[in-house]
Design brief:
By secondary structure, the chain is α+β, with helices and mostly antiparallel strands. The chain has a single domain, classed as L,D-transpeptidase catalytic domain-like, CATH 2.40.440.10. Helix content is 17%, strand content 32%. It is built from 5 helices and 17 strands. The strands form 5 sheets. Strands 7-10-9-8-17-12-13-14-16 form a 9-stranded mixed β-sheet, with helices on one face. A two-stranded antiparallel ribbon has the order 1-2. The chain has a two-stranded antiparallel sheet with strand order 3-4.
């Protein structure tokens, strides 16, 4: 199974690129510290900074103290090849990634309570707020201009290896997708990836999701129809930490 999927991986990327723009609309800089040693989040005209405990750095300044967790801070371990529910995911070449978007533990700059997901679409980060004034930060791909959604909502439910169904209007534009009109089975090349979390506001489906993607190069870009996409290994990690009903803020 693993060898077959790996062999198909490169050839399937062209199909994924075709599906990527509207894949989520389905049914069914350098170091993470700024120059002053503090992670910052800028959204519009708002800039927020955390005030964590600090310790002297080798240069004589002060840097925040954060937890060390090999499951979050060891890139080789985090992005290794994995078989999940019988489906093989290839290793992510993390050394080729923009290092800003590698999974990290950072100070909580969001001002939100533990358990809250905060998506900074401008800077392409997703924060999962933790206890102790910290957050796990993931790099994300976000919606293209005109496709974005912002606001406060909740994760209504979540799915492992979801089926992807292209909207009828997408099939009309791309007749080659007709074969997926009844759904594309889960797999390493499925546009929804290994996991999906469904965003609802006031009890109604926004049609926007947090989901995985085989296109690791799309992380940090505006590449979707508004959904928030993560590397598959990252979305599995996030999925395991998030419960239905968790609050989400998209800025």
């Amino acid at each position: 199974m693993r060898g077959r999927i790996r062999g198909q991986y490169g050839a399937s990327l062209a199909l994924v690129a075709v599906l990527g723009l509207q894949g989520c609309l389905s049914q069914g800089v350098g170091n993470f510290f700024g120059t002053n040693g503090v992670d910052t989040m800028t959204t519009g005209s708002i800039t927020s900074q955390a005030t964590p405990l600090a310790a002297p750095s080798h240069s004589g300044g002060m840097v925040p103290q954060i937890s060390i967790d090999p499951g979050i801070t060891n890139s080789k371990q985090m992005y290794a090849a994995v078989t999940d529910n019988g489906i093989s995911l290839p290793e992510v070449p993390y050394k080729e990634m923009d290092q800003r978007f590698v999974r990290r533990i950072v100070p909580n700059i969001t001002g939100e309570a533990p358990g809250t997901i905060v998506v900074d679409t401008r800077n392409r980060y997703l924060y999962l707020v933790q206890e102790g004034n910290e957050a796990i930060r993931y790099g994300v791909g976000v919606g293209k201009e005109g496709f974005a959604w912002q606001g406060r909502a909740v994760i209504q439910y979540k799915k492992e290896w979801p089926v992807w169904t292209p909207p009828a209007e997408m099939v009309a534009r791309k007749p080659e997708l007709q074969k997926y009109a009844n759904g594309m089975e889960p797999g390493a090349m499925n546009p929804l990836g290994a996991r999906a979390m469904y965003i609802f506001k006031d009890g109604r489906d926004t049609l926007f999701r947090i989901h995985g993607s085989p296109e690791w190069k799309s992380i940090g870009t505006q590449a979707s129809s508004g959904c928030i996409r993560l590397i598959n290994q990252d979305v599995i990690d996030l999925y395991n930490r998030v419960r239905p009903g968790s609050p989400i803020v998209v800025l």
